């Protein structure tokens, strides 16, 4: 039986273009943070996937520090960093998402809240999406999903009773 090849070693740390893991990357501050996505479980699978992608990308833009460093594989090829926090996807409904979004307004200074409304399915570009947001009464917005990031305690206060979307 052939023995697996040892990973490539580089004299001065990781492969070129790979950031070394640092104490900041592994800090205990991250241990107190939580990130969740709450998505309308009644949406078609493709819309759920798209909503999760949009929420995750937007959250990553707001918190680039949650993305880990690039990593090498066994052969030394580089793989771009991914999130260092778990991101559970929880189930919601059209009405529960509207209620959740209203409750979150009072805590927006303590949480990062990203939301996606149903206009993503009917508009062709960001300007059209913005127009729908600015012209639709808040009480009539239909949310496809909401992402939350903040202290575990606060995120759990709003989402602890929600099950995983499966």
From TrEMBL:
Source species, domain of life: Bacteria
User: Sorted alphabetically, which Gene3D superfamilies does this protein's record hold?
Assistant: Bit1
Looking at the record, which segments are called Disordered?
Answer: 1-24
Cleaved signal peptide residues: none
According to UniProt, the name of this protein is: DUF2000 domain-containing protein
Q: Which species does the entry assign this protein to?
A: Kiloniella laminariae
């Amino acid at each position: 039986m052939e023995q697996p090849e040892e990973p490539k070693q580089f004299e001065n740390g990781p492969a070129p273009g790979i950031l070394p893991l640092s104490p900041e990357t592994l800090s205990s501050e991250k241990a107190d943070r939580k990130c969740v996505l709450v998505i309308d479980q009644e949406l078609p699978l493709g819309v759920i996937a798209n909503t999760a992608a949009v929420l995750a990308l937007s959250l990553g833009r707001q918190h680039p520090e949650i993305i880990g460093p690039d990593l090498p594989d066994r052969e030394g090829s580089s793989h771009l960093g991914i999130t260092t926090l778990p991101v559970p996807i929880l189930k919601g409904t059209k009405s529960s998402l509207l209620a959740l979004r209203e409750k979150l307004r009072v805590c927006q200074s303590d949480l990062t809240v990203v939301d996606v409304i149903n206009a993503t399915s009917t508009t062709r570009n960001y300007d059209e999406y913005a127009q729908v947001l600015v012209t639709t009464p808040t009480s009539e917005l239909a949310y496809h999903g909401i992402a939350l990031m903040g202290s575990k305690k606060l995120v759990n206060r709003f989402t602890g009773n929600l099950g995983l979307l499966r």
